[in-house]
Write a structure and sequence with these properties.
This protein is an all-alpha fold and 115 residues long. Helix content is 63%, strand content 0%. The relative contact order is 0.11.
Length: 115
Amino acid sequence: AVVSTQSTGEEVRTFLFKHPLFYESLIVAQAYRISDMIPFVFRNAIIEDNMDYFEDYRSVFSVDAAFFEEVCGKAQRSRLDETSTRNLVVMLSKCKDIAQRRSIAQKLALPSTYL
């Protein structure tokens, strides 16, 4: 996918959902004044099994309570396969607030082995 100065907002979002390199996606998002990267992190890291995307995101932005709540909401609205669930668990393990981690795991009905 290619983004140009003539790209529409929809084309840019499509690019961001599909582009596997976080830093390049961030540059495009900033150029088009897209500030919420969480949907693209969810898609690339959880759904597309690209946890490097998440780690790169974490190197630039904090993953706070609001981040994990938004990810939880997206997970609740998605059909996650085994790989996506594993990626979600890995992501959730980065949540420093143990009570929030347990709460999200319960909301998502993750097996207790994931807690």
